[in-house]
Amino acid sequence: MWLVRPKTGEPRSSHVPTSLNVGTTPLRISHPHMQEALLSHAADQGAKVMRGTRVTNIQTGNLEYSTSGKLDDLSARIVVSTEGRNATARNLFPSDRHKVDPEIRSISGLILDDVPAPMDANIISSDDDGHLVIMFPQGNGRVRSYLSFSSEEGRMYSGPKDYEQFITDSIELSGWNDYYEPATPSGLLATFKATESWIDHPYQDGIALLGDAAAISDPTFGQGLSLTLRDARTLSDALQSNEDWELAGHEYAESHDRYWKTLHTYTGWISDLFYSWGPENIERKKLAMEKRELNIEMDPSVLLEGPDTELTEEIRKWFFGED
User: Fold this and answer.
1) Alpha-carbon distances, residue 224 vs 30, 34, 115, 215, 221 (angstroms)
2) 3-class secondary structure for 76-97?
3) By CB neighbour count within 10 A (0-12 exposed, 13-18 middle, 19+ buried), where does 278 fall?
4) Which of 13, 123, 149, 254 has CB atoms 3.0–4.6 Å from 135's, for a disulfide?
């Protein structure tokens, strides 16, 4: 369930499984728990899991690595990089395939315990200045709490010294005193750029990029994990269905480019309409929302149903209320 609880105005909720064609709901998965589950499954299937190992060099057909200061290498039919946004393998791709949007937004996040918020709903508050406050419940009073804002504001929350300021500002922007005041901060507090960047066609010469290594989605929209899992499935299916892994790698990259383009376009629309700031955008958003409601069945729901819908010019006009 989504619970929209603005600082001013009445809260409203929507039950995702019954309000969308997909008939399911977003998953609030603990990243560390999922990583452990996948690593354990891989090991059970015969994969060699090497913890504490750092990749030092990647080449076609070869991988060099360091374990406890000892250098070694291994040969590979294909090298798959899931190293994240700072992946070493990204540097192997030509500069003209590296794409990045202008820096517009930042996002800060912190785990909170003892939060008396509903554990069955994602909770969101936004305002006309482009601020976004979100809570993703994890169960038993634990939530992942986020604050998203314009990079021009210069906000920077980092570490325990900024716990109090993060909570104070979150309350000021959302009005959720009842959620934040009893909360206990837990874990790391950090601020990240919400800028989207990607590698066009993330495969070449036996090296495939997956997840953030291939494309970094604005974390405000919570699509990073889903995108990573889809990349893994797409590449796996291509490799299993084609004995020529070079062709399979290109097949994966072409598929990735299609669904990434859809996701990137849709998040761009949302940012433009809902999270732009300034008085000139308030009336624009109001009029667009009124017109959209007249034909709500056109909503492609890319963030919840997946990036498989073709975003036509007709859908774009509906989204922005352009008739």
Assistant:
1) 13, 14, 25, 9, 8
2) CCCEEECCCCCCHHHHHCCHHH
3) exposed
4) 123
**Domain segments of the chain: what residues?**
105-193
pLDDT band at 177 (very low <50, low <70, confident <90, very high): very high
More confident residue, 15 or 262: 262
* Rounded Cα gap, residues 130 and 122, in angstroms: 19
Q: How confident is the model at residue 299 (pLDDT cuts 50, 70, 90)?
A: confident
- CB–CB of 170/181 below 8 Å? no
Q: In 139-214, which ranges are continuous DSSP H helix?
A: 163-174, 177-180
What is the C-alpha to C-alpha distance for residues 91 and 89, in angstroms, rounded to an integer? 5
Sole residue written with tokens 């998965």: 29
Cα Dmax for the chain: 64
The answer to whether the beta carbons of residues 133 and 147 sit under 8 Å apart is yes
Fold of 105-193: Alpha-Beta Plaits (3.30.70)
Beta strand 184-193 with 207-209 is unpaired
What tokens appear for 89 in the block?
A: 């393998």
Helix (H, G, I), strand (E, B) or coil at 58: strand
Contact 148, 132 (CB under 8 A): yes
CB 118 within 8 A of CB 4: no
| Res 20: pLDDT | 57
Tell me, rounded to whole angstroms, the distance of Cα 13 from its chain centroid: 22
Question: What is d(CA 156, CA 223) in angstroms, rounded to the nearest whole number?
Answer: 23
For residue 1, give the 3-state DSSP assignment: coil
CA 106/CA 152 separation, integer angstroms: 9
